Amino acid sequence: MPNPPVPTVLKMLRGNPGGRKLNLREPKPVGDLLDPPPHFDDEMREVWDYAIQNSPKGLLKKIDSGILETWCSSHVLHRRAIAEVRKFGMLVKPPKSEVPVQSPYLPIVNKQALIMMRAVDHLGFSPASRTRIATGDVEGMNGAWDDVADAV
Fold first, then answer.
1. pLDDT at residue 127, as a whole number
2. Domain carrying residue 51
3. What is the pTM of this model?
């Protein structure tokens, strides 16, 4: 599977390791991402606020809200499903059987973990994805985009 395209600002922050020509006409995202969606409950807002407070300043823009919303929702659903597995166990006995079966919450745990892991890479939240971003002296992403504009 080929690597997905890398945004120009990330190529610049990485020092353009491939040495390929930079796309100086790439759209510039605007508006820092701050407020959680209005339909989030308190637990989801807590996770959202944690992500915003702990991600690199200026990295997340309003256009990224859907990815962050997916990550937050999956994180909370994963947490809730884990609580149910702890409460009832990994194996449960159906009402009319003596043979234990897998908890119905385990597939939820696994599915939400997969969704979170995909979103994490897009958001730069994992140790591996963070190694591909170098902020250096740049104050957030806006400074990097200013450098792109100056190069045109």
1. 75
2. 8-151
3. 0.72
